[in-house]
Amino acid sequence: AGGLYCPAQRKGALIHFAARRAMDIEGLGDKLVVQLVDAGLVHSPADLYGLSIETLAGLERMGEKSAQNLAAAIEKSKQTTLNRFIFALGIRNVGEATARDLAKHFGALDGIMAADAEALQAVSDVGPVVAESLAAFFAEAHNREVIASLRAAGVSWPEGEPMAAGAQVLAGKTLVLTGTLPTLKRDDAKAMIEAAGGKVAGSVSKKTDFVVAGEEAGSKLEKALELGVPVLTEAELIKLLEEGEKA
Questions:
Q1: Mean pLDDT of all residues in the chain?
Q2: Is the pLDDT of residue 169 over 90?
Q3: Which residues, at least 6 apart from 119, have a Cβ–Cβ distance to it below 8 Å?
Q4: What mean pLDDT is predicted for residues 70-86?
Q5: Cβ contact 109:124 at 8 Å
């Protein structure tokens, strides 16, 4: 759980932090990171934002022009997005997709930092292992200090509201898929339903809230009609989910 701390990991953590899909600091390659760490100029990602053009120009193979370009890239990287920032922190088991889900669910970094493992598991695709990694990372005083220093250095991103419970348009609902849907694969339809808070069951019963029927829907559709369960087409399902997102 050393995260951004241990010297051996420091170079790797900084290389990850500067990567194109993380903070996207153009020109800050592996060799440069190694030089900065070995020279004792950078201990944590926050130190990158305190480097002057003079300091950078003094590095091996760095001219005045390259130093100016790198300083400009570091400055530009201050404007980022919450999901890129979370990904850039290099939290174990947290890839780009998870970072996006966390940003969308909580809206703000403080909410993620304050969440316990249970609250984190309410995020789609966050299981016990990922929740534990996140909680452990943010419980580490050093990691919190680095984040505070990054914010103090001017690293910022737009924040939104946490996802309202209302956005979970299918919360507590059980759906059954039957037949072949015109455009969605069954796994994709299932993922969309689960992301909206719904469950997908294998068989129709009185407890089923909706049946989504495609081509050649068989006995499940008959049973739904018999029990009076509402039947949706794929298009109706998508419309329902889109309206929920706007809510």
A1: 91
A2: no
A3: none
A4: 97
A5: no
pLDDT at 162: 83
Mean pLDDT of the 57-83 span: 95
What integer is the mean pLDDT of 184-198? 87
Contact 169, 244 (CB under 8 A): yes
The rounded Cα 242 to chain-centroid distance in angstroms is 21
